[in-house]
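Working notes for the structural subgroup meeting. M.R. asked for a predicted model of this chain before we commit to crystallization trials. I am recording the input and output together here so anyone reviewing the notebook later can reproduce the run.

Input as submitted:
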Amino acid sequence: MAAFAVLAVFSYAQDLPNFAAIPVDKKSDFDSTANDAALKAANYLISTPIEKNNANRIDAGAFLIKWMTNSPDYSFNLEAEGGKACKNNTDLLRVYIAALTKSAMDNKAFAHDAKKMKLESFKIFVAYCKNPANNVKMNSDLKKMIEANDKGELEKYLKI
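Returned structure, recorded in token form:
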């Protein structure tokens, strides 16, 4: 079974674009290629386990940060709860920004509703963190968030 998981991650990584070759610096750069690459990066990050020094995860995360910063079509709020849950863990931060991106791109109808986007992105983030296969190191704030989610109180925890 472990061999299958490794094979699945390897084949997914082969489908990733060359993020360094996709410009996202000015408004005219944001075409379907850039946006498709952002969604692929987000999907990759939230579907593969955290692994130290994984070049694909590092590249996907770096691309997403640049894409999120310069996107003329989307705006993102990095919430305090996300910062607390990540606690200087860049691997976990990549997952959080991937959840934000996926939420915005998959839910265009409410992409400008900050409350709905906050809840949706944290649901994705929590689901990822709860899966033991994803190698997430738990801290107290992350544990509290997951507990709130499990009790059906994520909105209350996030103060939405």
